Amino acid sequence: MVLKYSAMKYSPVLVVQLILMVLFFIFVRYGDEKEAHVRGFEGTHVMIFVGFGFLMTFLKKYCYSALGFNWLLAALVIQWALLCQSFFTMKDNTIYITKKSLLEADIMSATVLITFGALLGVATGLQLLFIAIVETVIACLNLWLVTDVFKAADVGGSIAIHTFGAYFGLGVSMALRFRREDTTTPMNNGNPAPVVDLNGASYTSDVTAMIGSIFLWIYWPSFNSGLTNSDAEYQRAVINTYLSLAAATVTAFVMSSAVNKHPGRFDMVHIQNSTLAGGVAVGSVCNMHIGAGGAMAIGIGSGLLSVIGYRYLTPRLTKIGILDTCGVNNLHGMPGVFSGLLSVLFAGLASAQDYGTELSNVFEAVGPDGRSAGSQALYQFIALAVTIGLSLVGGFVTGLLSKMPVFGSLKDAERYDDQINWELP
Amino acid sequence: MVLKYSAMKYSPVLVVQLILMVLFFIFVRYGDEKEAHVRGFEGTHVMIFVGFGFLMTFLKKYCYSALGFNWLLAALVIQWALLCQSFFTMKDNTIYITKKSLLEADIMSATVLITFGALLGVATGLQLLFIAIVETVIACLNLWLVTDVFKAADVGGSIAIHTFGAYFGLGVSMALRFRREDTTTPMNNGNPAPVVDLNGASYTSDVTAMIGSIFLWIYWPSFNSGLTNSDAEYQRAVINTYLSLAAATVTAFVMSSAVNKHPGRFDMVHIQNSTLAGGVAVGSVCNMHIGAGGAMAIGIGSGLLSVIGYRYLTPRLTKIGILDTCGVNNLHGMPGVFSGLLSVLFAGLASAQDYGTELSNVFEAVGPDGRSAGSQALYQFIALAVTIGLSLVGGFVTGLLSKMPVFGSLKDAERYDDQINWELP
Amino acid sequence: MVLKYSAMKYSPVLVVQLILMVLFFIFVRYGDEKEAHVRGFEGTHVMIFVGFGFLMTFLKKYCYSALGFNWLLAALVIQWALLCQSFFTMKDNTIYITKKSLLEADIMSATVLITFGALLGVATGLQLLFIAIVETVIACLNLWLVTDVFKAADVGGSIAIHTFGAYFGLGVSMALRFRREDTTTPMNNGNPAPVVDLNGASYTSDVTAMIGSIFLWIYWPSFNSGLTNSDAEYQRAVINTYLSLAAATVTAFVMSSAVNKHPGRFDMVHIQNSTLAGGVAVGSVCNMHIGAGGAMAIGIGSGLLSVIGYRYLTPRLTKIGILDTCGVNNLHGMPGVFSGLLSVLFAGLASAQDYGTELSNVFEAVGPDGRSAGSQALYQFIALAVTIGLSLVGGFVTGLLSKMPVFGSLKDAERYDDQINWELP
């Protein structure tokens, strides 16, 4: 904690930045210009920096930190991910980057930002930066397992990005919970602290959070379809994501009004988040032949699941000390697992009759000389299981490491408060 | 009103969502991937969800409802419109949807959101949802008449979308006005109610409304040009819309300062809205050979018309009980009619000499074996007249139906207030 | 000052708008549809109207003016620039405009908005409009010198747009400073005025400013790459801008925390602005073979330079009376000069070996029958020097002219205050 208000506090981050620069000088070259035509980059870029950033401004006195750390973490992670995500596939010790690599780096940074959502307001800047750097490595390893080893279909990243990011975050949160006992020293001479609860929204902060939420919603079809290969696959991914999101939105509103403590009224937490669950739930299967009605069914299911999670599950997790400030388990975790299970189902149902020549676009390992549909379904399941395991364990261990004194820690009264990190007006 | 705070209040909406899903399972299939290259979808998507949503946050205590209902209505209408807009042209009982269909559904939802603008803060959620579902049917019928029956040119939808949406809204408003007499029962034991007037902006809400306004302005060229066929037509639509908007913006500022109660000062209502009138007024003719100077003249005219409308017409309509909270008559209604009349003029002036081989791109029924320019002008006029008639009558009847007790209604003191619909911080 | 609250105050602006319309009727025709495929227009459009507009809402009581004048100035300048930027290259007295022309007009308007940033809150509306109209002429002349006469490479406009806009603004500011002595007449009968300092942010205004900042950041790769010619050049520009911005962002955070008055805390001024310096600094060279590591080194350098400028240079300039409200010298000026100097370096290093057939795409005058690399480097330097000279002198003279009584002026107590220009809620 000696470093808390030191001018040198963030100097290790500059060292990391300089190391990244040197590594880029050594290993990175411009790649093939054919990939300059990749779709979905601009929209995904908006999601990462405006979408995630503003969605997390819902806390009334943590808006600067939400926007600032979102930006700082993503700016660091996109650089680091450009290296990590190519580590296993580089040739001649050279990484060739293209516009498509930038899209992939953006997508990878979403993983870290989802984890940040679970920890919003309860970790120091240095803790967040440390977690981000470690998580990127493990998430890139997991992505390589899912995509290149298991050859699982996961075009929208619901397994490798959303599920991973959410359970990594919960893993960290589990590790951090033990810390709470350190801070039971009573403040105010043992009297109950007159704590103003900053873990909540103001009227204005809920409105700015909607900027993030709606931009995420708008560009989700771009996100899910960005890495498709053919026009048909691309269009299916766009249509399915669009329909799933629309159905999830209607469902989230209805459910919010139904389960709210004051029935008949909507809760902004649900509206800002559960509306988006349709994008996650359809992610792994959006390029498959799930049908327009199927996409809507998935959206409806995810809207239900997500609102129920916010209403009944999150309070219970909080009670046992597993904090999840943004409720990423309800937006990314459970809908991500749902999407993974759907990918098992739709992989098992895939046939050359439905997909025609597109079969190997969607499932690269399936074909006359490759896997059967049933076998692909099994690999989908393995990919999901490995992701959950690796993210929970990785997150837990990373969380334990982030408790090293060098990274500092927040007292209860310092949580959800910009005061710690910012010069305020 | 018994349902006002019931957990089941919005359950009929979930039933509607489930019916939509079933209809999609039965009737909808993925369409031709050639339409995956449609232009303008992403921009239009931003306009619908961010543009309309945030523009309506100008009311100081209705921001949640503005954003929430905008989202809910649009999410429902885009699904419903995908069916309705294809009803007259489906083959073998199957609707093939493409990315272009999504763009058309987004455009159709604008109609409903314009109507919502007229009713902002004065209708219940269930009333709005009912109106949206009915309006979509009538608006799709009208669109089919305008486009397929009359074969009118209306590429930016100023007739079938803007004019229709605005006068449908005024029609509903006329029907709702009779309700006001129900609520004359004095509150507070007959003493004048200490009503805080919520029908106005705060400093912050005017700033968030500008998010919507500017995003609408930015992507209007995408909106107007989205459904063009050739590069030349597309580029003309973009240029004309860009210039008309720029000229309308300069004009709106000057006029706002001129007619304001405190001359020399700008009024945010004009700036947020009349700047956009240039996009509406050029909509029906933006792909025609109107000339760059012509586009600017249209913009100047619409800026004038719109500010004058806000300053002098809306207060008079309010006085006779026709509420129009956002002044959609000044932004969409009168500029839409203006655009329709311009389309009569420019259709009448169209010649193969100016348009060359593009003539049938812009006016599909005009040509050596088809209509004359004069005849096309007449059809443009018919399309406009039918749109105005159908929207006013349709809106009025729908408004009367929306007064059924099952949808609830708002007392005067409940207007413009998020309290009714939301859990507030 | 008699015109201050007159209904006719802005009527000359309408006259300007009408003259523009007439000029467009006479001189402007639709151009070749091949340029309908230009890249980067939509993103740049977002930067100009949302990016610049919201970035300048950081002042707590000048949000309406920031958004309003940004919009009004840009809407006027894009029309005027469409004429001015083609003045030297028009054929047969006709200007053919395309979607690419719109992009170029948007880019030119950035110049004026940068200048506006220097003057934010200290000039009247009429002063700003006058300055904008004059500046557009001089900036288009300078752009023609840089691009067509010196044939300097400046694809992202860091010389002709950023450097020019910043030093034009400082030139105006130098001219305006003499005015301060006019207002030393004490208010309040000689007692010190109980001035509330409006030259600062509120919690909310800092959050809305981040909307602008992040959108500028997101679309900067589109801005810098919009006018590239080939896919390879385009992709290089996108990658280099992306990496430079990421590195500048990390650096800006670290430096902000290091040099802040309260060390260890971030300052929103730095975060909102210095994060963007990476986009400016890489602008003139982003399509060159600078290498991914080189792009990051440039970003790191610009982040350092910009934060240091905000922390130590701006207060000194303010002390000697050169106001620069947004600190455009630190975001556009010094990083722009840095970029210009880098273009001297990389032009000097350019070889057919590195660039292959692309050499003439990037440096149009270099080649076997043209200039040598060293000669091109010299022209890059001349372009930079002429830009600095012309902008400072042009700005200073324009600033002197803007002090004519007809444009009005602001007293000290009227600065940074929407009250003067707006009907407030």
TrEMBL record, chains A, B, C:
UniProt entry tagged with the keyword Transcription regulation: no
GO cellular component: plasma membrane
Domain spans labelled Ammonium transporter AmtB-like: 44-406
Membrane topology: Multi-pass membrane protein
Membrane-crossing segments per the record: 12-31, 43-59, 71-90, 159-178, 198-220, 241-259, 290-313, 334-352, 377-401
Protein name, entry field: Rh-like protein
Keywords, in A-Z order: Membrane, Transmembrane, Transmembrane helix
Organism in which the protein naturally occurs: Manduca sexta (Tobacco hawkmoth)
